[in-house]
């Protein structure tokens, strides 16, 4: 899969993407729920049917990542298998099953003079999403934007470019099957970093909001350089809180799932907070379950007393 270029360079390429997105957004804003759901279901079917091709494309990305000495969680985020591809397809189907937010009334009130005012949900327009590594974000972001009536321009990480292109082709097939313009979901077809800069600072006439999904440095750059509104986030320092009224078995299940389901993703739990009122009943079972599952646990003196395998936490650990 070669990279696309424009005769007039990155600027020309990005301008074309912007124009196509704006045109598509005007069509998508008026599209009915049935058309959007049809596109999503067709895309999910295309992902399942194209699983072998997606895996071949992903193998190219993984091979290049290994050659670049990328290992551990970063490599895990990049890698796909049959189970993860099925999860992508199923995730798109779950988005299709969601209620359509467009046209619903979020709030309504009447003024003293009898004037009735409604706040009705409408699409934002064109969303730009910049993300790193995980190719499944291509499917997730494309599906969510489509269901919410927004055209989207996706710029994935260069390390997953082959995987992203293969998944995007399935989303495009879904749009075509439903009679929606391909500009509804577009993927920036170049790894040139200048495309990101142009997307942030040169496309205010096309993009209504930018969403960064990645590490702290990516989010900081987007917030610093963007000339359109940004929906940002902080680091993935996720906490699980165990309340005094929590069922112990439920707390164990939730803590294990939150941390061990997939440790390399930004949504994996980093900190476990336990209510002081239930230390005697809840702390040891939950901490021991994590340790037994192969998770390293660091804690304060109380937690160390609960299980001798717990390591002493440093001051830095509480912010990591």
Model description:
With 320 residues, the chain is α/β, with parallel strands linked by helices. The protein has helices at residues 9-28, 33-49, 51-67, 72-78, 82-97, 136-147, 161-177, 194-201, 216-225, 248-260, 279-292, 301-306; strands spanning 105-110, 116-120, 126-131, 151-155, 185-187, 209-213, 238-242, 269-274, 298-299, 311-312. The strands form four sheets. It has a four-stranded parallel β-sheet, sandwiched between helices. A two-stranded antiparallel ribbon has the order 1-2. The chain has a two-stranded parallel sheet with strand order 7-8. Helix 6 links the parallel strand 3 (126-131) and strand 4. The chain is globular and about 65 Å long. The two termini are 38 Å apart. The model has no long low-confidence stretch (mean pLDDT 94).
Q: Given the C-alpha coordinates, what overall shape results?
A: globular
Q: In CATH, what is the class of the largest domain? A: Alpha Beta
Note the main sheet.
4 strands, parallel
Structurally, the number of domains stands at: 2
Could you give me the name of the CATH homologous superfamily of the largest domain?
Aldehyde Dehydrogenase, Chain A, domain 1
The percent range for helix content is: 40-55%
Structural class: alpha/beta
Portion of residues in beta strands equals 5-15%
Ends: how far apart?
A: 38 Å
Question: Which features characterize this protein?
Answer:
Aldehyde Dehydrogenase, Chain A, domain 1; two-stranded antiparallel ribbon; 2 domains; 14% strand; 320 residues; alpha/beta; Aldehyde Dehydrogenase, Chain A, domain 2
């Amino acid at each position: 899969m070669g990279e696309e270029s424009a005769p007039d360079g990155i600027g020309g390429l990005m301008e074309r993407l912007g124009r196509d997105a704006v045109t598509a957004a005007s069509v998508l804003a008026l599209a009915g729920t049935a058309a959007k759901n049809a596109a999503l279901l067709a895309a999910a079917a295309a992902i399942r049917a194209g699983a072998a091709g997606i895996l071949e494309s992903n193998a190219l990305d993984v091979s290049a990542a290994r050659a670049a000495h990328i290992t551990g969680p970063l490599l895990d985020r990049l890698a796909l298998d049959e189970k993860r591809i099925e999860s992508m397809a199923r995730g798109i189907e779950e988005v299709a099953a969601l209620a359509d937010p467009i046209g619903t009334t979020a709030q309504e009130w009447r003024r003293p003079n009898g004037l009735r005012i409604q706040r009705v949900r409408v699409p934002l327009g064109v969303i730009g999403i910049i993300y790193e590594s995980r190719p499944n974000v291509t499917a997730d972001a494309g599906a969510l934007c489509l269901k919410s009536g927004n055209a989207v321009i996706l710029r994935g990480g260069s390390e997953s470019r082959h995987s992203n292109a293969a998944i995007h082709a399935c989303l495009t097939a879904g749009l075509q099957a439903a009679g929606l313009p391909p500009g509804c979901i577009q993927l920036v077809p170049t790894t040139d970093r200048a495309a990101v800069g142009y997307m942030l600072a040169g496309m205010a006439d096309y993009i209504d909001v930018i969403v960064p999904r990645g590490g702290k440095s990516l989010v900081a750059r987007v917030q610093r350089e963007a000339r359109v509104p940004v929906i940002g986030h902080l680091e993935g320092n996720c906490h699980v809180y165990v309340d005094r009224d929590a069922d112990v078995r439920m707390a164990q299940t939730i803590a294990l799932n939150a941390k061990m389901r997939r440790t390399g993703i930004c949504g994996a739990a980093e900190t476990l907070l336990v209510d002081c009122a239930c230390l005697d009943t809840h702390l040891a079972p939950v901490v021991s379950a994590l340790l037994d599952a192969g998770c390293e646990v660091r804690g304060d003196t109380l937690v160390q007393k609960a299980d001798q395998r717990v390591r002493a936490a440093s001051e830095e650990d509480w912010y990591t």
